[in-house]
Write a structure and sequence with these properties.
With about 170 residues, the chain is of the alpha+beta class. The chain has helices at about 25-40, 155-165, and strands at about 1-10, 10-20, 50-55, 65-75, 90-95, 110-120, 130-135, 140-145. An 8-stranded antiparallel beta sheet has the order 1-2-4-3-5-6-7-8, sandwiched between helices. Strand 1 and strand 2 (about 10-20) form a beta hairpin.
């Protein structure tokens, strides 16, 4: 599994997933950890941004199993609105927070942070899963948490991502 950042006009616009698709929440947390490390680079992520996970095989410009594409910002005048993530429901949603928008869990340590929500179908026995990561500008992961059987309303990031999915 390989993950490559994509940028447009010097701003982070997504990630290319190649090789193979992540198998489980632990592998998705590795993708998120890389994404947060990239978000920690000064100026690359100007605002808290939501990304959609798309399992769309691509052959051009390079072979890929999918992409993680920026959907829009979570806050501000152009923020995404509730229910704005159009069907089909994505396999996952990420939110990345730049260092200026992150309150670090380790005092006196400037970090970026992020969360991935893998929505489930609880009525069919498939639980919601999520991962949270914090990393500094040198790439050091200062916090990583994975949770299955998640109540999306128990955390601000997962609640915000759930509202974007709600129709």
């Amino acid at each position: 599994m390989e993950v490559s950042p994509l940028q447009s006009d010097g701003v982070l616009s997504g990630f290319l997933l190649s090789g193979r698709w992540p198998d489980d929440l632990v592998e998705w947390s590795r993708v998120l950890a890389l994404a947060v490390r990239v978000a920690a680079v000064p100026g690359l992520l100007p605002a808290t941004t939501v990304f959609r996970v798309c399992e769309d095989p691509l052959d051009d410009p390079v072979p890929a199993v999918g992409v993680v594409v920026a959907e829009g910002t979570l806050v501000g005048p152009d923020a995404l609105e509730p229910g704005s993530i159009s069907p089909p429901v994505p396999l996952g949603l990420l939110v990345l927070h730049p260092p200026a928008a992150t309150v670090p869990s380790v005092p006196d340590h400037e970090v970026a942070s992020g969360c991935i929500l893998l929505p489930g179908l609880p009525h069919l026995g498939l639980d919601h899963r999520a991962s949270w990561v914090e990393a500094d500008v040198r790439g050091t992961v200062t916090r990583l948490v994975n949770r299955g059987d998640l109540d999306p309303w128990s955390d601000a990031d997962t609640a915000a991502l759930s509202v974007l999915l709600a129709a």
